[in-house]
Amino acid sequence: MDRQDSAEKPVIIIGAGPAGLSAAYELARLKQQPIVLEKSDKVGGLARTECYNNYYFDMGGHRFFTKDKRVERLWRGVLGGDFVRRPRLSRIYYKQKFFNYPLKATNAFIGLGPWESLRIMTSYLRWRLFPYREEESFEQWVTNRFGKRLFDIFFKSYTEKVWGISCSELKAEWAAQRIKDLSLKTVLLSMFVKPKTTIKSLIDEFDYPRRGPGMMWNAVKEEIEHTGGVVRTNATVVAIHKNGSGIKNVVVSSNGHSEVIEGSHFISSMPVTEFIKKLQPPAPQPVLRAAEKLRYRDFLTVSLIVDRPALFPDNWIYVHDPEVKVGRIQNFKNWSPDMVPDSSKTSLGLEYFCTEGDELWKMEDADLIELGKRELAKIGLATPSEVVDGCVFRVPKAYPIYDSEYRDYLAVIKTFLGNLENCQTIGRNGLHRYNNQDHSMLTGMLAVRNITLGERNDLWSVNGEQEFHEEIHENIDLEPALETVKDVFAQAFPKLDRLALGLSTGTMAAVVLFIATIALVLKGGPVVGPNLQLLSQYLPGYSVTWHGSVLGLAYGFATGFIAGWSFAFLRNIAVFLSLAVMQQRAERVLLKKLLEYI
Amino acid sequence: MAEDSTSLERLVLTRLLRLNAIVHGVVTGVVVGLTIFIATNWLILKGGDVVGPHLALLGQFFIGYEVSFTGSLLGFGYGFGTGFVIGYGVAKIYNSLAEIRESKSRSQ
Hints:
- The structure holds two protein chains of two kinds.
- Chain A is α/β, with parallel strands linked by helices.
- Helix content of chain A is 46%, strand content 19%.
- The longest helix of chain A has 47 residues.
- The N terminus of chain A is likely disordered.
- Chain B has one domain.
- Chain B is built from three helices and no strands.
- In chain B, helix 2 packs antiparallel against helix 3.
- The relative contact order of chain B is 0.18.
- The N terminus of chain B is likely disordered.
């Protein structure tokens, strides 16, 4: 391809997931014609919808709710009335029983029975009284807050299924990052901002495209193409050529042919590790090493069609039971009736968390379907004979792993990428960040603003954890509230200096007693200050005399000092205790919903 | 976000509270003033042969004060003035000391 002026070259977008397509959509709206390169045969990325015999399968289950108006506008603008609003129900399956999610104490205790409940309470008390001194692992972190027994039942097996690591190996930092840091803010927001309760919470219901999220992304693709943009599927970027401090072109392999495509700007949502490895000339060794170290967790969905009109009311079920390998079961008919072409049947997605290349990942599809049937029967949801058909979909690099070292490695990569002038990485895997769909979209939109408006939006700081706040404080414009809270916090919660308050109160008390004594002495009379003199009952040696006034000065100072110091001491303890109690309360609320963020 | 909340926590542990001297003075003044006002009127309502002989001793410091309704108003004024000076003084001295101690700990 001949060298063109930068202005004439298109923006190249690698990856047609929510982030990449949102970026392309924004460019298309600005009358630009981007080129989107997608290596798979369909768009949607991690939020794609697979189709098998006219049954639609959402890879992971994607609720459509967001606080961001730009994202909301895109969704509504593209799909209009093709959304259905669905009630939300998701429960936990453990030892042949279903438990409410978010966790509710009474429901859990009823389900577990009095003996198990007693063991849980005993364990809770034991760990509250004698916690682990150091919280190094996720296991220790949750145990200190919930007790060992509850941890074993509601956290251990599911977390280990999702991440494939023992909870004792999973760093506490991971939980702290997702929960602990947020709890203090949640506390403060709870104290100062009252959520509106009139609008029905998004926790109870959510919007969903009639035929899954893929419907949205196919529609976005059509809109981009309608305005002259190009979305190429089955187009794998095999090399990315650097030119000085920027990217010059990408080499694309499609249907056995290679092609060089030049662009003015490059936006990539491909896994950042792959992006680094494809650079030519190669990235420096430390950057390549850092890219090697970032890890992902994958999953596969065993999709089963069951010959029954209804199986269970949940949208999905968390399967904690260690007796089965399945981690989560999606009931797509409950997401949208249009996901199933035959109303006499139900389609399920049994999600198995695994790592690319491991035993589960490599299992034959037929074996996986048999495994799914067996486990479905074991859970008691359907018999194998009721399963009339099935297929398997594999989703590589579904979750970036936040291990103990990822921050350091990501920092190296981030610094390197920051020096590439015409290139931005976006999306969950482009940023190696546990973003939700809406936040991934936002990174794509902001990347376009950086190009077209010259803004300097930091895509790495688009917050994947904002949803936590949204669910707790939905309907609140969070940032102004947080700023207010920070101001109030800065004024009200710092500690009183005990010594300073003691000295100041002591000084003033000394002055007052001194002046009162001197005033009476100067006033004179047959009996000078008989009533003030009574202070000598508490202050030995004190008298309403010149000498007594000096002693009064000392006594006043000492008494005032003790009073001021004690007041500051008690006030600090009271503030600390109340903050600690509120923080723990907030942590418990957040922990109840932890599964969604595991 | 994580850094923000860490800084909030740091705020609790390391920053020292500052007192608003005017507010502190007014609040202490109102409390002292109201105490004298209520105490005076309480004794008036209670009545008796000699009304409030001990409280009347405040007249030794607050010129013109007596245990009567007019005295209670004057007492409120005196109490407020005295309380304000004490509260304001405590806050001012406290803030100066806190400033010194905080800047000293920052420089270490």
